[in-house]
Amino acid sequence: MSTLRLINPTTTELIAEQSLATAADTDAAVAAAKAAGPGWRAINPADRSRLMRRFADLIAAHAQELGEMETRNMGMTIGNSVWCANAAADTMHYFAGAIEKHGGSTLPGVGGVNLTFPEPLGVVGLITPWNFPMMMAAWKIGPALAAGNTAVLKPAEITPLTTIRLGQLALEAGIPEGVLNVVVGTGQEVGWRLVEHRDVRKVAFTGSTAVGKRIMAGCADQVKRVTLELGGKSANIVFADADLEKAAAAAPGAIFDNSGQDCCARSRILVQRSVFDRFLELFIAAAKGFTIGDPMLPTTAMGPMATEQHLARVRTFSDGLDTAYTSDVPDGPGYWHPIMIATPSDPTAAVCRDEVFGPVVVVLPFDDEADALRICNDSDYGLSGSIWTRDGSKALRAARAMEAGTISVNSNSSVRYWTPFGGFKQSGLGREHSMKVLDHYTEMKNVFIATGD
Ligand code: NDP
User: Fold this and answer.
1) What is the sign, positive or negative, of the torsion defined by CA atoms of 237, 267, 376, 362?
2) Would you list the DSSP string of 344-396?
3) Best mutation site among 4, 20, 91, 127 for ligand 1 pocket (most ligand atoms within 8 Å of CB)
4) Cα distance between residue 134 and residue 119, in whole Å
């Protein structure tokens, strides 16, 4: 068994040595999940719901501990990471409640009646990324278990700590052994084993579009169920009639939060030409207030990049970039990347089209509504987006025309566990959250009963 050194990206100090599981360990976890399935489904819904609520309460009770762990492991600000822990608890409460509410229907037929049953799939494989480790895990554990499945969860091996802790808290809550199995290993070995294992009936993946495509192709061999939450290049459209002060004040959080390592990051700001200069001025002023530093301090708005390797990747976009504003970064150790605001003249440049996954934003002008939507939709991605205007009809028209799954008007908020979340085009397949996600964790069965009439 090999080990991986986990590094605090703020201090570059070693925080833990993580042993990495093998394909054989993954097989053992799948076998444990398979064995636990009948027992999990035999617990009556009210009691299963109670177990998940206890799990949710334990997550909330450990929110500070979980938050500090996440911040040390990947550099997320403490305010954000504690918020994520509480959001993970709320997600678990929601799906605890869903257990008793998700059912089938009765459909009359000729000479009988049809009963539909949403049947659990069995063992599901959950694969999560490093940018929101704890929250991504909760997004998948909640519906997977609520639907009556058992799970093998593989976190990104560089940020496994909070997911391991969630696994411990699930056991402490009384969720039976084998129902939730956390296996820490590489994507190539553990992740891929989940894709190819015949007892894994579905893979739920969050990560990059490139890996998502490989996983989808891998699942095709067994017609394995697959859902994908992938990358984005989301647009923040600011019309001339918007409340510019409000739009500019909200824009830094929409891209620089979590150091830009956010699938929903509004990394393209499209501004109507007549207010372009004024918006840029307000946006830069707001960005200057976005403090970069020690993520453990409650006053810090942005920490370091999660890893040295990811910092190097972001620099392939930002090195030599002509910017309207570049912030300072803290002295000393740490994987720091400055905030960068660019106004490139070539909208086809890589920084305008590719997911940078860092604190780098492009601000581009547009002429009218049609032009804004053309630029916005000229992307392989379609995860989220924002529209800022005082004209309600225009807002709704533009929102309907945007090729993206999660849109906000006069706001940059993206994700709520009670509403469907997911992407158009190469940003994903299927939806997370809301009661609708349960369709992705169940197989619909129809039973016809002849009544002899
Ligand atoms: P990756 O695609 O590199 O990795 C995601 C997960 O997949 C990791 O656990 C990784 O393992 C695993 N993996 C890698 N290769 C394979 C493989 N061949 N088979 C099975 N599993 C594999 O993404 P990142 O971790 O770099 O995360 C960043 C990406 O995630 C961004 O593109 C971002 O937009 C996207 N994302 C999307 C979200 C959404 O909801 N749409 C939310 C959050 C992030 P390993 O640990 O070895 O890398």
Assistant:
1) positive
2) -S-TTSHHHHS---SSEEEEEEESSHHHHHHHHHSSS--SEEEEE-S-HHHHH
3) 127
4) 27
Q: Could you give the C-alpha distances from 126 to 193, 285, 417, in angstroms and in order? A: 12, 41, 18
Query: Does 281 qualify as catalytic in the annotation?
Result: no
The yes-or-no answer on residue 84 being catalytic is: no
User: Which amino acid, 28?
Assistant: A
In 265-333, beta strands by DSSP E: 268-272, 323-326
Per-residue pLDDT tens for 357-398?
999 999 999 999 999 999 999 999 999 999 999 999 999 999
Handedness of CA 43, 46, 47, 52 (dihedral sign): positive
What pLDDT, in 10s, does the model give residues 228-250? 999 999 999 999 999 999 999 99
Q: How far is the CA of 18 from the centre of ligand 1 (A)?
A: 19
Answer whether 160 contacts ligand 1 (Cβ < 6 A): no
User: For residues 226 and 206, what is the distance between their CA atoms, to the nearest angstrom?
Assistant: 11
Rounded to whole angstroms, the Cα distance separating 121 from 201 reads 6
- Which phi and psi angles does 57 have, rounded to 5°? -65, -40
Pocket test for ligand 1, best of 6, 84, 131 (most atoms within 8 A of CB): 131
Strand partners, 106: 115
Nearest of 433, 377, 380 to residue 210 by alpha carbon:
380
Q: Is the CB of 157 under 6 A from ligand 1?
A: yes
